[in-house]
Amino acid sequence: MLPKRICVIGNGYVGSVVSACLAHVGHHVTGVEQDGERLERLRAGKAPFHEPGLEPLLLRSLSSGQLRFVADISEGLEGSEVVFVCVGTPPGGDGLPDMTAMSDVAKSIAANLAHRQVIVTKSTVPIGTGRWLASMIREHLGAASCGDEVFAVVANPEGTAVDDYLHPERVVLGSDDAGALDLVAEVYRPILDQRLPGDVERRAEVPLIRTDLATGEMSKYASNAFLATKISFANEIARLCDFVGADVSEVTAVMGLDSRIGGRFLGAGLGWGGSCFGKDLAALVSTATEYGYHPRILEASLAVNEGQRQLVVDELLRELHTLRGARVAVLGLAFKAGTDDLRDSPGLDVAARLTRRGAFVSAFDPMVRALPPPSELKLALDPYAAVLGVEAVVIATDWPELSALDLARLRAQMDGDVFFDGRNAFRADLVRAAGFRYLAVGRPRAGASPSSSVALLPAPSGAASRP
Questions:
Q1: Largest Cα–Cα distance in the chain?
Q2: Which helix (H) or strand (E) segment is 421 a member of?
Q3: Does residue 299 share a domain with residue 190?
Q4: Scanning 10, 25, 117, 316, which has the fewest C-beta atoms within 10 Å of its C-beta?
Q5: Are residues 135 and 36 in the same domain?
Q6: How many helices (H) does the chain have, and how many strands (E)?
Q7: Torsions phi, psi of 330, nearest 5?
């Protein structure tokens, strides 16, 4: 592989991983970041968010000279062969991502286009963005230079975490320009061949999918929509389990043993959060509506996920009889374990719903040290401080640290005894033995553990095993 000169525009959750990983495999990478505070952190080798393995890659690549970070986009674009666009696309009021930052990038690329460049979209963008971006660039280039040979656009929707990026299950490249596909495939050659610096054991080669631009864009949305729907399906089954007295943890374990279904993304609980699932489903629904089509399954997936968050409020209201003046602790604020990402956090959403009903909410998360304003949450330094004097506790993220809590100590700190396991991560009999009223999603309320011997799927690392 000949090292390529790469520019990565936007170095937040997506871009910093792209920059660090591509530099790690041997390319010369210039990351562009216009947020001054984030830029200084990146230059010092500090990750702008919690991501396992990211800081060592940043430090190593910065020290070797394979990676640098700049504020000036023209400096980053100068001499680059491939430009990865990783700017923020927050959800807009119509369900589609806000494309303001993408539009600014198109103008900058056109203003600095001195040689052929391949532009790769990594941001979460609506289907059709590749064509839109190409048209935006041509519009700003003007009539004098608007041929397709000047640049090309490639959709590359996969990989936003270090391990996923370096060891993906597949690499998807979508473009209507065969030469652009060839070039980006060469960028990924070390990853495709799994010949990575520092890897002791070589893994199997990674499949490369080359397709057209529209199909490449659609593949990411379709994958995320399916996974989100799978979670919502498990939560729909959990509601039925509540009615008939079945245990959804065992039901989904049985389902997961079917090779046609598989056990991943079948966890019932508070539902999904984060920056991808909700935004992608909303964008797909919005796109379908533009064509006069109503995607009923996708709409139902969104509705079920919304209902899971309200379920906590309804259950606590039933147990406490009123939420006005009630004190509740929410343990776990990140949208999933292993990150400090609060975007579309189920825990934060539940806390906000409780606050609106008049409750006083305290919270703890192992990775979260500050909350975005405005927030009425009282953030504690440890879980036992968070539950001091509360009437109910809600487990909102399946952190191993939370599953390993001393339940007797937790109960002793509280005034009340309500324990809502929003991730079905605890053994019901152990929680009840500590003096709690145990509530969960789709699991029996009665005291005895089920007598069945279903081989349950593994609990989160470090978590108490399920009954």
A1: 78
A2: strand 418-421
A3: no
A4: 25
A5: yes
A6: 18, 14
A7: -110, 120
The number of beta carbons lying within 10 Å of the beta carbon of residue 290 is: 11
CA 456/CA 251 separation, integer angstroms: 9
Question: 21: Cβ–Cβ under 8 A, 6 or more apart, which residues?
Answer: 57, 162, 165, 166, 191
Please indicate, yes or no, whether residues 180 and 310 belong to a single structural domain of this protein.
no
Q: How confident is the model at residue 95 (pLDDT cuts 50, 70, 90)?
A: low
Catalytic, 276? Answer yes
Is 340 exposed, middle or buried (CB count within 10 Å of its CB: 0-12, 13-18, 19+)? Answer: middle
| Residue 160 CB partners (closer than 8 Å, separation 6+) | 13, 14, 17, 122, 276
Q: Identify whether residues 205 and 83 lie together within a single domain.
A: yes
- The Cβ of residue 244 has, within 10 Å, a number of other Cβ atoms equal to 7
Q: What is the dihedral of CA 258, 260, 265, 270, to 10 degrees?
A: -70
Same domain, 19 and 117: yes
Residue of 7, 21, 86, 276 marked catalytic? 276
Q: Show the domain range for 349.
A: 248-440
| Residue 48 contacts residue 38 (beta carbons within 8 Å) | yes
Residues in the chain: 467
- The rounded radius of gyration (Å) of the Cα atoms in the chain is 24
Nearest to 396 by CA among 459, 440, 462, 447: 440
- The answer to whether residue 344 scores a pLDDT higher than 90 is yes
Is the dihedral angle over the CA atoms 132, 142, 82, 123 positive or is it negative? negative
The DSSP result for 13-43, as a single string, is TTHHHHHHHHHHTT-EEEEE---HHHHHHHH
- Give all strands (DSSP E) within 229-381, no chain letters: 327-331, 360-364, 378-379
**Number of Cβ within a 10 Å radius of residue 400:** 16
Q: Which secondary structure element, helix H or strand E, spans residue 6, and what is its range? A: strand 5-9
Task: Report CA dihedral (16, 18, 24, 30) to the nearest 10 degrees.
Answer: -70
pLDDT tens digits for 4-63? 999 999 999 999 999 999 999 999 999 999 999 999 999 999 999 989 999 999 999 999
